[in-house]
């Protein structure tokens, strides 16, 4: 039987990855040792899946483990009440933000929504609430509408990731557990006593995880949405990360107050990040690293984005060196989300 062995600190993000890819075997129990969590998985055969797990710090191992007794897997519960075609429609599973499960059932299954949500609640005791997506992520705050479906009527999520805890209202703030790998990746790049700027900080996951892992770092986190800012302040307190200073306001004005301050600038706002290259430059020290997230065309988009950064560097007389480009996730039929890591080296007139 296959298990994914993962260090305790990375367990929450591995669980989210396994759920998203419908790999968790809910018929068997999750096991724990002092340093590791062992997630039971259905058989892992694809090379792509293996790579995905291994690049997220998981090791695929063979061991014997106990079956679950309390609850049944929600898909097997549903197989009793849904026909084969309806079961096929259920491919996506659900997203989990701590206590809140988010479903997005197709029109064909709309009438079965209540049944599906009851099965989710019954299959996992830590889920208190099931809500459904009721629109796309939109607007400058990047928030989404949700509809209550069943369980406790709340929109407040308590979510653990990479050893930190976050509380936030899913209707009023942006949060994506799909970025958990990126947060640990960037965290691993931070060096001793760095100054890290996180414009577009949301409820604080990048800033807080970096600050927690690097108590000698100084982190600033900038957010425009008042609700996200308030949640971030609370999350800083909950995680005891007094080395993060949160700012409420527009990056365009707050960056100027921290000119030439940052060794590293993290720009997690993929829809509009390219409008803020000036601000990344302002925040940067003479030499600094920028991580810019953006949506781009799957065909030719990466080259176009690099060309735009090169053109900005030329127009503003700084040198740019590309260190890494990574596809974060598919975004739509023709678009992907990517992250480009690049180094800025300012010429003397900027200093
Ligand atoms: C995609 S979310 C990223 C949130 C967070 N970094 C995360 O990983 O969950 C982008 C965030 O940037 C904020 N934002 C948008 N424009 C902004 C601006 N001009 N200045 C500061 N924050 C801004 C939005 O309110 C939103 O919370």
Overview of this protein structure:
The protein is an alpha/beta fold and 351 residues long. The chain folds into three domains: 2-62, Alpha-Beta Plaits, CATH 3.30.70.2580; 74-154, 2-Layer Sandwich (GMP Synthetase, Chain A, domain 3); 176-350, 3-Layer(aba) Sandwich (Rossmann fold), CATH 3.40.50.150. 28% of the residues lie in helices and 31% in strands. It has eleven helices and 17 strands. The chain has helices at residues 11-20, 47-54, 74-78, 84-89, 113-123, 180-189, 205-213, 226-238, 251-254, 277-283, 301-315; strands at 2-7, 31-32, 36-40, 59-62, 95-97, 100-103, 129-133, 146-151, 156-161, 164-169, 195-199, 218-223, 244-248, 262-267, 284-297, 318-330, 335-346. The strands form four sheets. It has a seven-stranded mixed β-sheet, with helices on both faces. Strands 2-3-1-4 form a four-stranded antiparallel β-sheet, covered by helices on one side. Helix 8 links the parallel strand 12 (218-223) and strand 13. Helix 6 crosses helix 7 (205-213). The radius of gyration is 21 Å and the shape is globular. It binds S-adenosylmethionine (SAM). S-adenosylmethionine (SAM) is lined by residues 140-142, 174-176, 179, 199-202, 205-206, 222-225, 228, 250-252, 268-269.
């Amino acid at each position: 039987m296959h298990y994914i062995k993962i260090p305790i600190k990375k367990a929450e993000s591995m669980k989210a990855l396994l759920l998203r890819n419908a790999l968790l075997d809910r018929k068997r129990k999750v096991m724990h040792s002092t340093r590791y969590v062992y997630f039971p998985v259905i058989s892992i055969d694809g090379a792509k899946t293996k790579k995905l797990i291994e690049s997220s710090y998981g090791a695929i191992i063979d061991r014997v483990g106990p079956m679950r007794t309390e609850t049944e897997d929600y898909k097997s519960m549903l197989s009793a009440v849904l026909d084969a075609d309806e079961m096929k429609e259920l491919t996506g599973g659900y997203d989990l933000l701590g206590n809140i499960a988010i479903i997005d059932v197709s029109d064909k299954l709309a009438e079965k929504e209540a049944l599906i949500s009851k099965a989710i609640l019954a299959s996992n005791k830590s889920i208190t609430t099931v809500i459904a997506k009721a629109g796309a992520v939109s607007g400058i705050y990047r928030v989404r509408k949700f509809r209550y479906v069943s369980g406790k009527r709340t929109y407040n999520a308590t979510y653990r990731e990479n050893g930190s805890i976050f509380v936030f209202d899913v209707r009023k703030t942006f949060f994506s557990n799909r970025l958990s790998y990126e947060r640990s990746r960037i965290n691993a790049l931070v060096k001793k006593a760095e100054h890290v700027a996180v414009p577009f900080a949301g409820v604080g996951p990048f800033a807080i995880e970096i600050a927690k892992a690097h108590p000698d770092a100084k982190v600033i986190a900038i957010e425009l949405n008042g609700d996200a800012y308030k949640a971030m302040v609370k999350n800083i307190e909950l995680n005891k990360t007094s080395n993060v200073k949160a700012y409420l306001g527009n990056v365009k004005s707050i960056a100027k107050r921290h000119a030439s301050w940052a060794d590293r600038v993290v720009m997690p706002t993929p829809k509009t990040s390219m409008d803020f290259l000036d601000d990344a430059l302002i925040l940067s020290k003479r030499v600094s690293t920028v991580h810019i997230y953006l949506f781009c065309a799957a065909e030719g988009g990466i080259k176009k984005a690099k060309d735009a950064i090169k053109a900005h560097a030329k127009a503003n007389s700084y040198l740019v060196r590309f260190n890494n480009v990574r596809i974060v996730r598919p975004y739509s039929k023709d678009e992907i989300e990517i992250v480009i890591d690049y180094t800025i080296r300012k010429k003397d007139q900027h200093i």
